[in-house]
What does this fold into?
Amino acid sequence: QPEVIINRDIVRAAGMRQSDLNHAVAEKLAEIEDRRSMYYRDHEPVSVAGKTAIVVDDGIATGATMKAGLKALRRRGPDRIILAVPVSPADTLEDIRADVDDIVCLETPDPFFAISTHYRHFHQVSDDEVIGILRLCRALQDHAPVVASE
It folds into this structure.
């Protein structure tokens, strides 16, 4: 079940009609499904039920995408959700606080302009990079040492 979060202030500022919004939502949901298929391929998502999930992002601006992701993650049953970001506006973090158990954020600049202004090099991560990272994580997980417990 997709989690759709609408920032009504942005919709009003952009002068979008409901039909425009419906079209944009449909396009984004199709894009997400394409990426899920590409990223997961023949693998199941890692179970987070009963675990601590740490969500890491390069920064948060409006928080709409993060809120949708956190709500979807919460439905998967983790015991705790920790959000870790290097930079975000303080009011965005306050808006997200109810969706997580803990937040680690290094900077909350005021005024906040853009995430990219806090990096020397800020580039979009390509699908190929994501697929490579996921492949490496799966390989490491498959060969992870077994830790005996008493």
